[in-house]
Amino acid sequence: TSVIQITATDADDPTYGNSARIVYSILQGQAYFSIDPKTGVIRTALANMDRETRELYSIIIQAKDMAGSVGGLSGSTTINITLTDVNDNPPRFPQKNYQLYVPESAQVGKAVGKIKANDEDLGVNAEMEYKITNEEGAAMFSISADSDKREGVISLKKHLDYEKKKVYTLSIEGANTHLDPRFSHLGPFKDTTTLKIIVGDLDEAPIFPVDYYIMDVYENAPVGTDVGIVTAQDPDNARGKIRYSIDMNIDGETLFSIDENSGLIKTRASLDREGTVWHNINVSATEVDNPKLVSSIPVTIQVLDVNDNAPYIQTDNDIIVCESTKAGQVIQTIRATDRDNFANGHFSFALPADVPANPNFTLKDNEDSSASIMARRWGFSRADQELYQLAVVVWDGGEPALSSTTTLTLRVCPCQRGLRTPTCRPQAFFSSAGLSTGALIAILLCVLILL
């Protein structure tokens, strides 16, 4: 697939030999893209590039005159390529079965709950439509997408009567609205789940002023942090005392507590948004004078992100520096990762401010959450120094920003020519073992004599 065409200019006379005849090549990024040496048209080299796996690419293009022959002059540039999203990921409900408590006093036409199918795509490619596919559910409830077309909002169509029917089962389907026929073989681009709606008997039981609560609390908040208050009232006695509790059958009771008198919900443990974003609990309200009269309400608690994870540079191996490296040449592009929300995840790079300027290497922040390590001088000698250390600081875009410092090891060696990535020549490893050329010759002669 054609991506872009680049053009280099040469001030030499194009009619005089090959002085101005330019040939294009890729110095970095050959695994993902190719370039027409004559036209400069960049194309993808992989058949199935996945944005969800990797979104940003930086490639280095060289333009060389004299038709690319030895002795020709060259220049290079960096092209940053961003993959655009396509609808190639079907939506999926996190669970196959859900349960929702709805009091029989819920108002017709009002929302009683929400449900969501997750989609790894972005924008319109992740927009959803929902529908109830069974007659029992569709007769009593309706479902429609919210304003962002991500969640399904469940509303009541008819009055509920606990004495007539206590449980409704809804078969819900979530489907993408913008399909791409090129990826139809990855479908179907829809998913189904089952929602059991339990009708609450509110005959003389406490009444909540709303049908459900949505609250939020920041992750890592201290234990005992206030989350929100639920309030119920005895319909028969405005001064009747109510006792609140969290349904012990729900996992949320290990994370949250509730004051039995005031209905104030607090945290019982430190919450981690990177682990779970939404917590669903059921709160029960019981009349003190008549403990048999109980009503419940679903409470959804969203864990808000805080910048509590410092970014770090992704690197496993030493960075190879070829002895023939030129000043200004990109040695390697490094990237960082962060477990926090994307809002905190735009990364910046720099060399430590409290360290003297490095005479050998410099760092260029590409402003796309990557940075390029570049040589500051011409040529390196493995005999003079094999290993270099380069400390790099990376920080995120949170407030306050978090940072970490990683010391990278750069290894100098004579490199093999013609390879896509810098690779040391085999003979480079013999000297690492401390063997001189004469010692190697002596060893070889001994082997020949034994043979």
Automatic annotation (TrEMBL):
What GO terms fall under cellular component here?
A: adherens junction; catenin complex
Keyword line? Calcium, Cell adhesion, Cell membrane, Glycoprotein, Membrane, Metal-binding, Repeat, Signal, Transmembrane, Transmembrane helix
What residue intervals traverse the membrane?
429-450
Q: Report the superkingdom from the record.
A: Eukaryota
On whether Signal is a keyword of this UniProt record, the answer is: yes
Give the Cadherin domain ranges. 1-93, 94-208, 209-313, 313-424
Any one of the GO BP annotations: cell-cell junction assembly
Topology in membrane:
Single-pass type I membrane protein
Where is the major localization of this protein? membrane
- Entry-linked CDD domains: Cadherin_repeat
Query: One Pfam family, short name please?
Result: Cadherin
Localization, UniProt: Cell membrane
Name the PROSITE patterns on file: CADHERIN_1, CADHERIN_2
GO MF annotation terms: beta-catenin binding; cadherin binding; calcium ion binding
Protein name in UniProt: Cadherin-18-like
